[in-house]
């Protein structure tokens, strides 16, 4: 079965392997039948709020992988919205010119913040997908920079014509599925924490098979375990194919 992984981080400074580690991870992806990976960059390399130079370095590393593996790697541009509209627009323009197909947000700010507007306007203008980190949390003191599923829903309602991937189905859980259920421009990737029995089936039941995408969060998570969330589920093969490949292929415009 062909697979597209919409959530990977091949370069991580914490593992001290750099290019060698990235090449090893991409080789493992191929060995698992993965035909395309979305590379999101080392988004926490410089903490939760990287400066403009650090953002450029992260995206340069992603672009290097895109150049080395043009038929295998799709790049998403990492951004820090708190740097302001001029910085955001400049980096989006730079990444679009290099063939990036989406934008990646981590924990520099909450997705419901007003600082997201320039980024979302650029996403709309360039037809980019926005992949937003999210997790069901109870640490209210972190809401200034952490995005809960309800915050993703707020963002989606403000920009209904921008396509959004809410990351981490297992981390968002039932609460996350219900939060974005009424937002047709939001799809959910299956990455995040250990597999939970029945969670993928629940997401399909509530959102429809067309709104679920396979993602691993590799190398933080293992490809085999991440794929088994889908292949080991009670979903029929047609639905599994949609989640593992077809939905992402359509969203990313891949042949």
UniProtKB/TrEMBL annotation:
MF terms in GO:
carboxy-lyase activity; hydrolase activity
Source organism of the structure: Oleiharenicola lentus
Q: Which UniProt keywords apply?
A: Hydrolase, Lyase
Entries under SUPFAM superfamilies matching the protein: Metallo-dependent hydrolases
Q: Which Gene Ontology terms of cellular component type are present? A: cytoplasm
Ranges of residues in domain Amidohydrolase-related: 4-254
* Name of this chain's protein: Amidohydrolase
Q: Which Pfam families match?
A: Amidohydro_2
Leader sequence residues: none
Q: What is the lineage of its organism?
A: Bacteria, Pseudomonadati, Verrucomicrobiota, Opitutia, Opitutales
Q: Name one GO biological process term.
A: secondary metabolic process
């Amino acid at each position: 079965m062909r697979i597209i992984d919409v959530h990977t981080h091949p370069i991580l400074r914490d593992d001290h392997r750099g290019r060698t580690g990235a090449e090893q991870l991409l080789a493992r992806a191929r060995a698992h039948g993965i035909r395309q990976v979305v590379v999101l960059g080392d988004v926490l390399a410089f903490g939760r709020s990287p400066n403009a130079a650090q953002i450029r370095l992260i995206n340069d590393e992603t672009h290097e992988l895109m150049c080395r593996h043009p038929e295998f790697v799709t790049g998403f541009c990492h951004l820090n919205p708190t740097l302001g509209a001029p910085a955001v627009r400049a980096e989006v323009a730079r990444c679009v010119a290099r063939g990036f197909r989406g934008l990646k947000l981590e924990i520099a700010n909450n997705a419901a913040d007003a600082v997201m507007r320039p980024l979302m306007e650029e996403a709309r203008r360039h037809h980019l997908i926005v992949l937003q980190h999210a997790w069901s949390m109870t640490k209210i003191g972190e809401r200034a920079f952490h995005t809960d599923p309800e915050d993703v829903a707020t963002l989606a309602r403000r920009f209904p014509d921008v396509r959004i991937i809410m990351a981490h189905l297992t981390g968002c859980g039932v609460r996350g599925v219900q939060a974005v259920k009424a937002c047709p421009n939001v799809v959910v990737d299956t990455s995040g924490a250990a597999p939970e029995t029945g969670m993928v089936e629940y997401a399909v039941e509530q959102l429809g098979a067309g709104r679920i995408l396979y993602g691993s969060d590799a190398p933080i998570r293992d490809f085999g375990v991440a794929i088994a969330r889908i292949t080991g589920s009670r979903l029929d093969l047609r639905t599994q194919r949609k989640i593992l490949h077809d939905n992402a292929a359509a969203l990313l415009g891949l042949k």
